[in-house]
Amino acid sequence: MAAAFDPSGRLPDLFTNAGTSSFSAFLSKAAPELLPGRRPLPPGMATDLTPHATTIVAIAAAGGVVLAGDRRATMGNLIAQRDIEKVYPADAYSLVGMAGAAGIGIELIRLFRVELEHYEKIEGAMLSLDGKANRLAAMVRGNLGAAMQGLAVVPLFAGFDLAATDPAKAGRIFSFDVTGGPYEETGYDAVGSGSLFAKSALKKRFRFGLSVDEAVRLAVEALYDAADDDTATGGPDLTRRIYPVVMSATAEGTHRFTEAETAAIAESVVAARMENPGG
After folding, report:
1. Which of 218, 223, 245, 246 is nearest to 234 (CA)?
2. Domains of the chain by range and CATH?
3. I need a surface site. Which of 8, 46, 151, 249 has the fewest CB within 10 A?
4. C-alpha–C-alpha distance, residues 49 and 150, integer Å
């Protein structure tokens, strides 16, 4: 960047001319080396060289949507971190979580949040929920080269659609593949190594019209079931008091459930499974 300044220290024209509403598009011109997918990588696979995050579940509820993630990150057969956070607010009405290469995933989420904020400042309006999903898809697509070397990031995006005609059905969920393909899901979805078990649990328990509180309980139970069968997914850690991150998006905005709230739900789930381990 320093080479782009003239001797007087004046900012380059790129910074002063009318620009794009996409921050990532601006960055691709101003400093492309800062984009996750534009960095050169040495040849070979890097799957076991970085912590990987799992598992994320999303559930549509009456009047909103819930997104929850366990707290474990693994590196090969080792637990790399016990309290990683994989679920974040994307903006005032949407949530994003990630599974895969943890470092790249966290960086992608931060860039996505800046992307949405930048758009609002430039355009004076919020992107539609479909527009947000498409922006995130483009970012995932930009990481394809790294994904082919084992550093894949697969996000899960959910939000409250302000344009929905029926607020009770405004909670929407989008999944993605490593090539950036966005797919709208119906009712619920999960990503990560424990997603197969989490979705199996959700398939039996989900019903349309769940309240947000019911969806939160169901999300924590699905994560428990995932941890029961997948070693890379961490269940509630009662000893260290580490519990899932649970967030909701409704007409009132995004909300993160407190540690005390998630602890009460998780401990209730564990107590119920002591009596009936199979759920």
Report:
1. 223
2. 48-275 (3.60.20.10)
3. 8
4. 9
Residue that the structure tokens 């949040």 belong to? 113
Query: Do 197 and 230 contact (CB within 8 A), yes or no?
Result: yes
**Dihedral in degrees, nearest 10, Cα atoms 116, 121, 126, 130:** -40
d(CA 95, CA 136): 12
Give the burial string for 16-26 (b: 16+ CB within 10 Å, else e).
eeeeebebbeb
On average, the pLDDT of the chain sits at 88
212-231 pLDDT tens trace: 999 999 999 999 999 999 99
* Cβ–Cβ < 8 Å for 249, 64: yes
* Active site (annotated) includes residue 179: no
b/e code 130-161 from CB counts within 10 Å (16+ = b) = eebbebbbebbbbbeebbeebbbbbbbbbbbb
Q: What is the DSSP letter of 26?
A: H
Cβ atoms within 10 Å of 179's Cβ, excluding its own? 12
More confident: 45 or 274: 274
Q: How far apart are CA 243 and CA 69, in angstroms?
A: 9
Q: Distance between CA atoms of 201 and 207, rounded to whole angstroms?
A: 12
d(CA 66, CA 203): 16
- As given in the structure block, the two tokens for residue 131 are 């527009």
Given 16, 20, 47, 54, which residue is catalytic? Answer: 54
pLDDT tens for 158-177 read: 999 999 999 889 999 999 99
Identify the bridge partners of residue 155 per DSSP, sorted by sequence position: 98
- Report the C-alpha gap between 142 and 155 in whole angstroms: 13
Of 32, 115, 69, give the one whose Cα is nearest residue 246: 69
